[in-house]
Design a protein that fits this description.
Oligomer: single chain
CATH architecture of the largest domain: 3-Layer(aba) Sandwich
CATH topology of the largest domain: Chemotaxis protein chec
Radius of gyration: 36 Å
Helix content: 25-40%
Order of helices and strands: HHHEHEEHHEEEHHHEHEEE
Number of helices: 10
């Protein structure tokens, strides 16, 4: 039955119901349909949506580090941001990139396997022109790089991999190392054609030039630690404990912090006129007895109780009691 009925079909249904030939309940009944979804075994989905969201968050940080790094190296306006994170077969990724491009093949221990950072030629040659003293405007299209240009590109992206180390630091301590730089994707084989990869696409702007930087990570590389790529684990890892060096440095700074410490002998209240009439030799009576312990206040909080006295002719206090944390509130 079509979703929209003509007027004649509506009239026929009403007539059938009126004559008793058909009931309203029969019309409501629909034959149950089996929900069938086509599945392409050549395009297996290995990453869950949760995994892809975590990769997106990690590489947002990666993009920020890259922006800072390339801005300093190229001395011009650079903007890099994550465009999308998707999963697709490795063969499809190879077909989608230009015949001549910049492919930075690298490893990241302790992960086993190779990954690739692909840089679109428009972005790569803009970087080269800036590094070699140009304005970053490419007037003619180029299809090859000289040996010197290849060495320059390899060096700048070798250092750029440090940004990946910092971005992944909350999940796993990686040690990315450049393996080789290729310009022809046909000579690069880091995974089987049907292997599922995570493709992180980074939209890149350098001055007036725009292009894409793509990070290809095969599923087989991430498989040993795939369970860490969940939102809960990601947030938990970001709140992980400090290292011993960080803790030691923090303790050292805290120990050198100067705080006001006040020993309060006592308090009283008098009228303003009595205060104005005070002269040398007058005695002010406090509300605390001589035998009572006096409070020691740190930043307005009473932290200790002490006995007043003298040491080597100087006024001093002897700590008699430590007030536990949270046992006292600040005094005005």
């Amino acid at each position: 039955m079509s979703e929209v009925l003509s007027q004649s079909e509506i009239d026929a249904l009403l007539a059938a119901i009126s004559s008793g030939e058909m009931s309203a309940e029969e019309i409501k009944k629909e034959e149950p349909k089996r929900k069938v979804r086509n599945y392409d075994f050549k395009r297996a989905l290995r990453f869950s949506k949760d995994h892809l969201r975590s990769l997106y968050r990690i590489h947002e940080t990666f993009a920020r580090y890259l922006t800072t790094y390339f801005s300093a190296q190229l001395r011009t306006f650079v903007q890099i941001q994550v465009l999308q994170v998707e999963q697709l077969p490795y063969e499809e990724f190879i077909r989608s990139i230009p015949q001549i491009t910049v492919l930075n093949v690298f490893e990241a221990r302790p992960l086993v396997g190779r990954m690739v950072l692909e840089v679109n030629p428009s972005i790569a040659f803009t970087m080269l022109d800036r590094l070699l003293g140009g304005t970053g405007i490419i007037g003619i299209s180029r299809s090859t790089m000289t040996e010197i240009e290849t060495i320059i590109m390899e060096r700048i992206f070798k250092n750029a991999l440090n940004c990946m180390r910092e971005a992944w630091k909350s999940i796993l301590e990686l040690e990315p190392t450049m393996e080789q730089l290729e310009t022809n994707p046909q000579f690069m084989q880091i995974a089987s054609p049907n292997e599922t990869i995570a493709l992180i696409s980074l939209s890149t702007r350098i001055g007036d030039s725009t292009g894409m930087i793509s990070l290809c990570i095969p599923h087989i590389v991430l498989e040993p630690m795939i369970n860490r790529l969940t939102v809960n684990n990601l947030f938990f890892a970001q709140k992980k404990q400090r290292s011993e060096e960080e803790t030691s440095a923090l303790e050292s700074r805290v120990q050198r912090t100067q705080l006001p410490v006040i020993a309060e002998l006592g308090a009283t209240s008098i009228v303003v006129q009595d205060l104005l009439d005070l002269t040398v030799g007058d005695v002010i009576e406090l509300h605390r007895k001589v035998t009572e312990a006096i409070p020691i206040k740190v930043e307005g909080f009473t932290k200790f109780l002490a006995k007043p006295g003298q040491v080597n002719g100087k006024r001093a206090v002897q700590i008699a009691h430590v007030i536990p944390e949270g046992g006292e509130i600040a005094h005005e």
